[in-house]
Amino acid sequence: MGWTANDIPDQTGRTAVVTGANSGIGYRVARELARHGAHVVLACRSERRGQAAVEQLVGEVPSAQVAYRHLDLADLATVRAFVEDLPGERLDLLVNNAGVMALPYARTVDGFETQFGVNHLGHFALTGLLLPRLLAAPGARVVSVSSAMHMIANIDPGDLNSERRYGRWIAYGRSKTANLLFIHELARRLRAAGSDVVAAAAHPGYADTNLQSGLLRLGNRLIAQSAAAGALPVLHAATAAGVRGDAFFGPRVLAFRGAPGPSWRAPWTRNDVAAERLWAASEQLTGIRYTALA
């Protein structure tokens, strides 16, 4: 039958932050973590949708310990404010789930191409700022949600913000490749520092979420698996025993649907030189340095 939400270990005493947790994959991840005892922070851009998600989650899991906190990954000032306002001195789990997909060209508050800025740079900054709390929690994990669509495009190190030429799907694929390169380099740096924090990645396959529009919505109705099923690879990366650094999980059936397991990834997402260069560029663009791993 494969790994299911019933296999999630007891999360009592653990604190998790899930970005984009007001709907879709993020909401299902937050709900299952809370159902298994974790205190979960729903980090969302919209206060209205975030608070509504908290109310819905408590209605489904009356014992849930959940809270909403404002986080807009398109604005690094709010990323810093989120971290400053987050209570507690340790964090057991960070799920970098929030994202945007195939948008027309636009820029974030800080001037980054929106998909690269939200999907990668915002999470790069958030993880760096939360890293001291993760290092203080034995067995902590960072999980970034990528996509099987990373395979359509490698990053262009000379044009990270797609200023010379923009295609909405290529930009999306590049941002999802960036997610995997980030985890690859973060896992390497954590190992080098002797830390037991695990950095892993996952993707939901083809899941019915609110990221899709137009013809993809028709595809959702016909062939997509549910958002709850799409959340399982993320939950596996976040909670299953034996997860190793730089692992990548997705649905077992052609990386499309089914129970979670190890997933194929494009070879360029394991390129050490590319990962290190992206890391250096991300530090420069965001102004965030991972000094705790220095």
What are the low-pLDDT stretches, counting only 5+ consecutive residues below 50? none
CATH architecture: 3-Layer(aba) Sandwich
Count of individual beta strands: 8
Query: How confident overall, as mean pLDDT?
Result: 93
CA(first)-CA(last) distance: 43 Å
Helix count? 8
InterPro entries: NAD(P)-bd_dom_sf, SDR_fam
Organism: Streptantibioticus rubrisoli
Family: Belongs to the short-chain dehydrogenases/reductases (SDR) family.
Keywords: Oxidoreductase
Can you characterise this structure?
Helix content is 41%, strand content 15%. It is of the alpha/beta class and 294 residues long. The chain has one domain (12-286): NAD(P)-binding Rossmann-like Domain (Rossmann fold). The protein has an eight-stranded mixed β-sheet with strand order 3-2-1-4-5-6-7-8, with helices on both faces. Strand 5, helix 5 and strand 6 (198-202) form a beta-alpha-beta unit. The chain is globular, with a radius of gyration of 17 Å. The model has no long low-confidence stretch (mean pLDDT 93). InterPro entries: NAD(P)-bd_dom_sf (IPR036291), SDR_fam (IPR002347). Keywords: Oxidoreductase. This is Oxidoreductase.
